[in-house]
Design a protein that fits this description.
This protein is an all-alpha fold and 71 residues long. The chain has a domain of 47 residues. The chain has three helices and no strands. α2 runs antiparallel to α3.
Length: 71
């Protein structure tokens, strides 16, 4: 006999949902995206733009990690 959905529900009643805590929204991923954008844009235009992109990316990664450690 093949089990039907009704049979499965009788054997395994649904358990209550366990609420998960969501992290606070942050702007660090957006800053990292701009840093990567400037980094690659600098590869085709100027070394100075790449350096600015590298700095923005490093600051964004550090800020994001620091923020996650405080949660």
């Amino acid at each position: 006999m093949k089990p039907t959905p009704d049979m499965l529900n009788e054997e395994y009643p649904p358990s209550p949902a366990d609420p998960q805590e969501m992290p606070e929204p942050t702007w660090w991923p957006v800053a990292l995206a701009f840093g990567v954008l400037f980094l690659f844009w600098g590869l085709i235009s100027s070394l100075y733009i790449s350096v600015v992109g590298l700095i923005i990316s490093a600051v964004a990664i550090a800020g994001w990690i620091i923020e996650l450690n405080h949660e």
